[in-house]
Write a structure and sequence with these properties.
The chain is α+β, with helices and mostly antiparallel strands. The chain has a single domain, classed as L-fuculose-1-phosphate Aldolase (3-Layer(aba) Sandwich), CATH 3.40.225. 40% of the residues lie in helices and 15% in strands. A hairpin with a 3-residue loop joins strand 7 and strand 8. The termini are far apart.
Length: 218
């Protein structure tokens, strides 16, 4: 007989799965990047630890913290980026999962002045608008403040951190993971267009964006 996982264990298992997937896809490095998730309405969340190999995390490696960073469960230090995650959860009741990855193509293009563009229907539906945040040192209040300015607008689901990486926000981990992956997918397509000599990207038209809003209800 298969033992059913508790809700707590399920959310922890999903965090470790997402972290392993990001590592396998080259979207985080061995000890870089961080993932968190919470139950809707809760003022506490589970987050990946600091300084531990991200490709093979176990549920027991995760840390539960409250919105002030107090450790509630876990035996290791939470990610130094917990202030960013906590800030997002404080401001956005619709967000229950936050992924910070180091998408190399998305980050590199943004450093060259090219943030993710609306060149696919997935970008239109899931990314919508992608602010680029000025550089601030990881783990600092300054970074959390810069992120806060951008995520106050509830339509924002994706951010680029200049010289640093990306953030995907979701109602759950699947949505947040999809947003991070779509950003990199769009960036690869953008890079391919530039390599092919295309001077202007073939963006989805405003007319089709309005139509997509009606069809997909976003």
């Amino acid at each position: 007989m298969v033992k059913e996982l508790s809700e707590e264990e399920e959310i922890k298992r999903n965090i470790t799965r997402v972290m392993a997937t990001l590592y396998q896809r080259g979207l985080v490095s061995a000890i870089g990047g961080n993932v968190s998730a919470r139950f809707p309405g809760k003022e506490e969340f589970w987050i990946t630890p600091s300084g531990i190999f991200k490709g093979n995390l176990r549920s027991e490696d995760l840390v539960k913290v409250d919105l002030d960073g107090n450790v509630l469960e876990g035996s290791v230090k939470p990610s130094i980026e917990w202030p960013v995650h906590a800030t997002i959860y404080k401001l956005r009741s619709d967000v229950n999962a936050v992924i910070h990855a180091h998408n190399p193509i998305t980050t590199g293009l943004a450093m060259g002045g090219i943030p993710p563009k609306m060149i696919t229907i997935e970008a239109v539906v899931f990314l919508r608008k992608v602010p680029v945040i000025n550089f601030a040192l990881p783990g600092t209040d300054k970074l959390a403040e810069e992120v806060a300015k951008a995520v106050k607008e509830t339509t924002v689901k994706a951010l680029v951190l200049q010289n640093h990486g990306v953030i995907g926000l979701g109602r759950n981990l699947v949505e947040a993971e999809s947003i991070v992956e779509i950003m990199e997918e769009v960036s690869w397509m953008t890079l391919a267009c530039l390599i092919a000599g295309r001077k202007e990207l073939p963006l989805i038209s405003e007319e089709n964006i309005k139509l997509a809003k009606k069809i997909y209800g976003f």
